[in-house]
Design a protein that fits this description.
The protein is mainly α. It is built from 9 helices and no strands.
Length: 183
């Protein structure tokens, strides 16, 4: 089990790094800057991470792990006979966490070209795995790209709007999709 103090220090380092990357850009942030903002020594930083790149990788992995776990919970809710709109309401705590905890780290990652590419690749892998588990047939590249794009669009919506779609917006979206697909 992780020591509470270590976890708290990790959280402070992460928040400081995210804030600095958003304010100054990744290339202009040093370990010294992160340590100063975190009110820790550089030695303490290096007890937690090898460098700022390892810290960025840890943040990226935390985001992907959180999303993977949330999508698994969503899949289980739908498999229990729930419809998407009910699953979304049951997942509201996780969606609120996306807005409150993950918005800034994701925005920071999106400003770092290499990390953004790894985030997008990770999202595609996670979405592909969850799509494969949800479909009753082998998924096609078309399904992965279209449905994955819709899911990424929902995540982007949450991040940009900083709010959830209303029930009415979800009904309209569902209706529009059916209209486009001719169902």
């Amino acid at each position: 089990m992780t020591d509470f103090r270590m976890k708290k220090t990790d959280d402070v380092i992460t928040k400081s790094s995210v804030d600095l990357v958003i304010e100054n850009g990744f290339d202009n942030v040093t370990v010294k800057d992160i340590a100063l903002r975190s009110l820790i020594s550089r030695k303490t930083f290096y007890l937690h991470y090898d460098d700022k790149f390892a810290l960025t990788d840890a943040i990226l992995q935390d985001i992907l792990t959180w999303l993977d776990e949330t999508l698994e919970k969503r899949r289980l809710l739908i498999n229990q006979g729930g419809v998407l709109s009910n699953a979304i309401s049951k997942l509201e705590p996780e969606l609120r966490q996306l807005l409150t905890c993950w918005r800034r780290p994701i925005n920071a990652i999106m400003t770092i070209p290499q990390a953004k590419m790894r985030l997008m690749d990770g999202l595609k892998d996670i979405l592909g795995r969850h799509l494969q588990a949800a479909l009753k047939h082998p998924e096609s590249d078309l399904e992965i790209n279209v449905i994955g794009g819709m899911m990424l669009g929902m995540i982007e919506y949450y991040l940009q709007i900083n709010d959830f779609p209303s029930g009415e917006e979800l009904k309209q979206l569902s209706s529009s999709i059916r209209l486009i697909l001719g169902e």
